[in-house]
TrEMBL record:
Gene: LOC114252048
Record Pfam families: Porin_3
The family this protein is said to belong to: Belongs to the Tom40 family.
Chain spans, region Disordered: 28-102
Membrane topology: Multi-pass membrane protein
Main location as per UniProt: mitochondrion
Name of the protein in its database record: Mitochondrial import receptor subunit TOM40 homolog 1-like
Superkingdom of the organism of origin: Eukaryota
Record keywords: Membrane, Mitochondrion, Mitochondrion outer membrane, Protein transport, Transmembrane, Transmembrane beta strand, Transport
GO CC term (a single one): mitochondrial outer membrane
Length: 377
């Protein structure tokens, strides 16, 4: 029994170091923002139903360590809030920030409690290997096959200081033989700030460049997000009480001024409930999450686009156990998706697998995905 406990304990630590986030999800082409609603899976890791806001008591729900995020953290139609392209670890776990600085969290994470329950559906097959070592550097390899998105081989190089709870500085680089490459660097210039730079290169040109500066204060947070020359976003989120947060977002676009937006946001959360909303001139987002049991969490999302006159509602759930996690969702567009992530154990290589299924009722199409990740320890 002790050997079994040690085995799963070791596997849990490997997963927390980013086995899914940095290799399987990040470097697998068929897993890019392919959730049934095509929303970006936001950012840093939620520990309770209140998004990234810290729990006042021990929370009865949790979020997987493999949650991801992508640029423009918006839903299909709603207002949303602009988010970062990638997310590694939540700063609320850091002991280097000022006292109370992690409350109320960042504005772009306000809907995390609900959106993290969405399955990250993908198509095809993927095999990923992570070569762990005693140093802070990790080398990864990924080989994917898909009839929908381009497959092939990718190599991943990442650096993370394992001795620091804040996981800073943080660096990850991904490259493919065709010349495509992406790189992310995150540092902490001061005690209460975090700076992130993300660059993508394709066809020998700088395809995308994103920079983010987050500021953490005792009862509010601010962010400045700039992507290429397309737009700049300003965020502000204030903790009114221990359970209520209010904020605003201003997005200014250089080439399309008519797409600029102003949004107001709010969130209320408790140990097992979270309600968040974003209302702006372009749309409305409503999210609700509830932890029914310690291992079961359900969520509901409504996105309304004023300009395009369209609304999408989604129901999702997450069922967690010690060795596996199941997520499922269904929306009013007729998309039904589910994923299963399972720890397999192993001796010299800790293994984990992921199975994905996505059914498109309107088009009568079905997609299946299978991935295996191994961490050589």
């Amino acid at each position: 029994m002790d050997k079994e406990q040690n085995k799963f304990s070791l596997l849990s630590k490997v997963l927390k170091l980013g086995i899914f986030e940095h290799i399987y999800a990040k470097s697998n082409p068929c897993s890019e923002a392919n959730s049934p609603r095509k929303v970006s899976q936001s950012p840093p890791i939620d520990k309770c139903a209140g998004g990234d806001a810290p729990p006042q008591k021990k929370c009865t729900c949790s979020v997987s360590e493999d949650a991801k995020s992508t640029a423009g953290n918006r839903g299909k139609t709603g207002a949303g809030v602009t988010g970062s392209r990638t997310g590694h670890a939540s700063e609320k776990d850091s002991d280097n920030l000022p006292s109370g600085a992690v409350s109320p969290g960042l504005l772009r994470h306000i809907h995390n409690a609900a959106r993290y329950r969405l399955p990250q559906c993908f198509e095809g097959a993927c095999v990923s290997v992570k070569q762990n070592s005693n140093t802070n550097w990790v080398l990864g390899h990924s080989l994917s096959f898909s009839s929908v998105s381009p497959g092939g081989y990718k190599v991943l190089l990442s650096y993370i200081d394992k001795s620091k709870p804040s996981a800073l500085p943080y660096f990850v680089m991904e490259a493919a033989p065709g010349g495509q490459m992406s790189c992310e660097v995150r540092v902490g210039p001061t005690q209460g700030t975090r700076a992130t730079v993300v660059a993508q290169i394709a066809n020998a040109e700088l395809y995308s460049f994103e920079s983010i500066l987050d500021g953490y204060f005792n009862n509010f947070t601010t962010s400045i997000i700039a992507v290429n020359r397309d737009f700049i976003a300003l965020h502000y989120l204030q903790a009114v009480t221990e359970q209520i947060s209010l904020g605003a977002e201003v997005v200014a676009r250089g080439h399309s001024a008519e797409l600029s937006s102003v949004s107001a946001a709010g969130r209320w959360f408790s140990e097992s409930h979270s309600v968040s909303a974003t209302l702006g001139n372009r749309g409305l987002d409503l999210c609700y999450a509830r932890a029914i049991k310690p291992y079961l969490t359900v969520a509901a999302m409504l996105e309304v686009g004023f300009a395009i006159r369209r609304a999408v509602a989604t129901l999702a759930y997450e069922w967690r156990a010690e060795e596996w996690t199941v997520r499922g969702s269904a929306d009013t567009d007729g998309l039904v998706g589910a994923t299963l992530q399972r720890a397999l154990g192993g001796k010299k290589a800790q293994l984990a697998c992921a199975i994905s299924a996505l059914l498109n009722h309107p088009n009568d199409k079905f997609r299946l995905g299978f991935g295996v990740t191994a961490a050589i320890v």
